[in-house]
Amino acid sequence: MTVRQLTLPELVGVCGQLDVGLVGLWREPVQEYGVEATAKLVRDAGLTVTTLCRGGFLTATDPAERARALADNRRAVDEAATLGTDVLVLVSGGLPAGSKDLHGARERIADALAELGPYAERHGVKLAIEPLHPMYAADRCVVSTLTQALDLAERFPAHQVGVTVDTYHIWWDDRAPEQIARAGAQGRIHTFQLADWTTPLPEGVLNGRGQIGDGSIDMRAWQSCVEAAGYTGPIEVELFNDGLWARDGREVLAETAERFVRHTL
Amino acid sequence: MTVRQLTLPELVGVCGQLDVGLVGLWREPVQEYGVEATAKLVRDAGLTVTTLCRGGFLTATDPAERARALADNRRAVDEAATLGTDVLVLVSGGLPAGSKDLHGARERIADALAELGPYAERHGVKLAIEPLHPMYAADRCVVSTLTQALDLAERFPAHQVGVTVDTYHIWWDDRAPEQIARAGAQGRIHTFQLADWTTPLPEGVLNGRGQIGDGSIDMRAWQSCVEAAGYTGPIEVELFNDGLWARDGREVLAETAERFVRHTL
């Protein structure tokens, strides 16, 4: 998504030129290109898919909507397995229209995970609950902290349900380091993502994830914390940013790779 | 600030018409009208000033900037005392330019409170640290949760330093109810403010505080929580909202009073 202006074949080509060997994919472009075709494309290029984003949106109260969400998440698991990644990132969903019940919404996520966890396990996929910044609590994700994400994940085996650690969402939280340790001790850090915090936030606050190094987040400190917790997996850079999307995708990917090297250990 | 389109004399007049007997004031319009003149205006009208907003911005590292901030906060204490309110709300300040050190910034607030707390006490004023929503952590307030605010406040006597509980900033936080109980047990809830959470957030996320009842926050639940913690003080409605500011101020105040009655206990 950092370079969504590139088609999948372009992305794969640029990754090859820049010596980037791992890539996180989003469902929409994969579905558009075809899941099997994407799997072949990345496999032929020797690229490894780190994660698939995203399943989730599990907070509906309406039974039909809920059934559709569960079916869609099972499809997302299938897609992840086809792409050869063992991690499906989950964005849990916001409050249903008119609801003010955050606790109830969080419990419905747990109910859904009880159904999806075993299904994912059978397909060799782990679910990674991503706590989103509290500014998304109403309309996108009622799971706002690593503490909440782990409280949910701990009801299930770690090889079924873990968490996504994303600097953009947790950097303000002085409790996050101890929660990263908690997640690591349980083997529940299923992926680690970077984005920087830049202000002012744009309207709707969706596409303001800053390029690494442009903002307020100490990337090395968070990387140290995650690695001290035992995480040895890939580190993803995930930027939604209208400014970056308006530029040449190859240039943005090169810049991102350079920033990654400069601001990580 | 909810009706900043009104001059202070207009505000006082409309409060009288609507039978509103308490009002929270902001420093800028008070300074413009004159502190003594404002004190006389509200006193003559029989209005009680609940709080003065706001001091704070105590995170600077530059010594001269820091000295200016402390002097300004002493002035804010003086203004509060002159207006006859015993509560000065503090917005702590964001990260200095280029800094990524949230912990250091929070410690500088503690250092400043050690100087300001005794000064405020001598003037009969209590400081109320306001945790702001984590979306303001970089540019406005490094104190993002009630837990953090109380961790700071507890270093000082409760009659010097307490907290502001504002629904807009804490509604997403499942740890907030226990922290309200903690604050109440210590006599540190120095004011309680309402605003609703509406989306999409506007650019810059400053002026999106929703009218009571328009958003995702269960006002009665938070009011119950604060009152169960022993709080018996006034409840303020503080809305920064471009839409409300564009309307007739008297109409907005009447609407706000009606919403308050409808959505509180």
Model description:
Chains A, B: Pfam families: AP_endonuc_2. The structure is a homodimer of 265-residue chains. By secondary structure, chain A is α/β, with parallel strands linked by helices. Chain A has one domain: Divalent-metal-dependent TIM barrel enzymes (TIM Barrel). Chain A contains eleven helices and nine strands. The first copy, chain A, has a seven-stranded parallel β-sheet with strand order 1-2-3-4-5-6-9. In chain A, strands 7-8 form a two-stranded antiparallel ribbon. In chain A, strand 2, helix 4 and strand 3 form a beta-alpha-beta unit. In chain A, helix 1 crosses helix 11 and helix 8 runs parallel beside helix 9. The two termini of chain A are 24 Å apart. The model of chain A has no long low-confidence stretch (mean pLDDT 98). The interface between A and B is medium-sized, with 35 and 35 residues.
